[in-house]
Design brief:
The protein is α/β, with parallel strands linked by helices and 181 residues long. It contains 4 helices and 8 strands. The chain binds inosinic acid and magnesium ion.
């Protein structure tokens, strides 16, 4: 059984993603030249993007990880987030690079950004691999975005459906039959 069989079509190829991640890394490297930002990975969806992105940034950054509540098995956000795993260090006065997989309603990031600023972060800069502006509910925009996509549910390169397909090396759309299982 191959996970690729469940994919209806590939939206972004491995090559397209790698090229764009290099470009984002270059922008961030210039932004943070001679500084030490804290790169925060939002688990679990951002893990793949995060690990590729930080290796494209030649700056003395440090890393930390957070987990916030997700959709469960549904394909839309409830608008209510919960911090499931908090940062492991004090962020007072820190410049934070918040790395997200996708901004959909924006509810997650809106709350997360405010949470980090309340905890004393000096700056919260948001980079997202994917942006779905058509579905925005919260008043938030990414400071840097990899790709703007249509209103469709995507998986791969870290993004899941019911916790699966995160290990697809590309971003794709699943066959409708997968949601009927
Ligand atoms: P938001 O709060 O609606 O912006 O949701 C953000 C989170 O929902 C993302 O970090 C993803 O984990 C998840 N999500 C939103 N859209 C998709 C999608 O198309 N595929 C997989 N996960 C998604
Ligand atoms: Mg996520």
């Amino acid at each position: 059984m191959s996970i690729h069989e469940d994919v209806q079509y590939v939206l972004l190829t491995e090559e397209q993603i790698a090229k764009r991640v290099q470009e984002l890394g270059a922008v961030l490297e210039a932004k943070y030249a001679d500084r030490s930002p804290l790169a925060v990975c939002i688990l679990r969806g951002s893990a793949v993007f995060f690990s590729d992105l930080i290796r494209e940034m030649n700056v003395p950054l440090t890393t930390d990880f957070m987990r916030v509540s997700s959709y469960g098995n549904a394909t839309h956000s409830s608008g209510n987030i919960q911090i499931l795993t908090d940062l492991s260090e004090d962020i007072t006065g820190k410049e934070i690079l918040l790395v997200e997989d996708i901004i959909d309603s924006g509810n997650t990031l809106y709350k997360l950004k405010n949470f980090l600023l309340l905890k004393g972060a000096k700056e919260v800069f948001i980079v997202t691999l994917l942006d779905k502006p058509a579905r925005r509910e919260a008043d938030i925009t990414a400071d840097l975005s990899g790709f703007t996509i249509e209103d469709e549910f995507v998986v791969g390169y870290g993004l899941d459906y019911a916790e699966k397909y995160r290990n697809l090396p590309y971003v794709g759309v699943l066959k409708p039959s997968v949601y009927q299982k």
